[in-house]
Amino acid sequence: MDAFNLQARLKERQQQHLYRQRRTLEGAQQPEVVLDGQRYLAFCSNDYLGLANDPRLKQSAIEAVRRYGVGSGASHLVSGHSAEHHALEEELAAFTGRQRALLFSTGYMANLGAISALLDDQSAVFEDRLNHASLLDAGLNSGARFQRYLHNDVDNLASRLGKATQSHKLVVTDGVFSMDGDVAPLNELAQLCHDQQAWLMVDDAHGFGVLGERGAGLVEACELDQQQVPVLMATLGKALGCAGAFIAGSETLIEALIQFARSYIYTTAMPPAVAAAGRQALSIVQQEPERRLHLQHLIRRFRHEAEVMGLTLMSSQTAIQPVLVGSAARAMALSASLLQQGIWVTAIRPPTVPAGMSRLRITLTAAHTDQQLDRLLHALERSWREVSDHD
Ligand SMILES: *Cc1c(COP(=O)(O)O)cnc(C)c1O
């Protein structure tokens, strides 16, 4: 008996070269990793500022464990809301220039909670078609009229908004797109939303900590305030090196989420030690702008030298630097060849990206050195030649 057709479905996945497997890390998240017993130089982490293994974050977490123990013990509304959570929320609100911020246990839950709390069957939601899966899932499950607009196409969105008859309209976009590395035209989107009386929600998971003069993200770089972007979401698991996420916005928005966001209400609060580490990370983001500057330097160098090598890059100025390779099989061959040279880069295939648009998704971090970037570039050149010879 193959209940629910599971065996058949798994076999089909395998035949399509789309079967996914996990690799087991035997140490901290950092450029030099140990994977299944072997050492590799990794270019696939979202730890953009190199904070996941920072001694100061570890110390903050350890001290908080001594004081608060490990588990939070309950949801925020029951008895799990600690002083560390509260202080982190206040610091996030101040840093992003919003009235308040609300912590969620993951970014997926923040998006699900916020979107479903705002929308009902009388509203309409408009999403960029390349939005993160958590935003698309949330929109689809919200009960609202759901539409996707063409990627970063403000005119396409405008014509859809113009035709909508619902009185409550929410436009949702990634700040930095996670598979392409390009950024949303936030100023134009904010203007359009203002004109059309829609609310704009920005998921800045890949911009927060990295973009903007102070590291407050793409919304800071675009100088957009709480009126222009009423719903700001960012995560603490990427550049901040921790885990969890938050929504920032008006007093009214946050109170409404506390009352109505089911993924906030019905789940255990993140461990207080994670919040304590998050506070430490937030302070480092503000005090060490040199991390952002070094990352910008590596991005410019990578783009210049990869272009000289003739690789096809995408229009990304962020830490996400995809190299387009075409077929899923070719992407897998390149990634395997790089692994043999001790370089770990993930191949991204359909259905995450469209067919024929498979890519190596290279991510750079402030923890990488110039020498490590040299190693990546040399290995890429060699693997590219090897795989092209086999074509
Ligand atoms: C990673 C990510 C999320 C999910 O955040 P988690 O904290 O990992 O659940 C949401 N949106 C975007 C754009 C992301 O890249």
UniProtKB/TrEMBL annotation:
Binding-site residues for substrate, renumbered to this chain? 20, 132, 352
Cited Gene3D superfamilies: Aspartate Aminotransferase, domain 1, Type I PLP-dependent aspartate aminotransferase-like (Major domain)
Residues spanning the membrane: none
Cofactor(s) named in the record: pyridoxal 5'-phosphate
Q: Which reaction does it catalyse?
A: 6-carboxyhexanoyl-[ACP] + L-alanine + H(+) = (8S)-8-amino-7-oxononanoate + holo-[ACP] + CO2
Q: Which residues carry this modification: N6-(pyridoxal phosphate)lysine?
A: 238
Ligase found in the keyword field: no
* Enzyme class, first EC level, given as a word: transferase
Q: Which family does it belong to?
A: Belongs to the class-II pyridoxal-phosphate-dependent aminotransferase family. BioF subfamily.
The function of this protein is: Catalyzes the decarboxylative condensation of pimeloyl-[acyl-carrier protein] and L-alanine to produce 8-amino-7-oxononanoate (AON), [acyl-carrier protein], and carbon dioxide.
Name recorded for this polypeptide: 8-amino-7-oxononanoate synthase
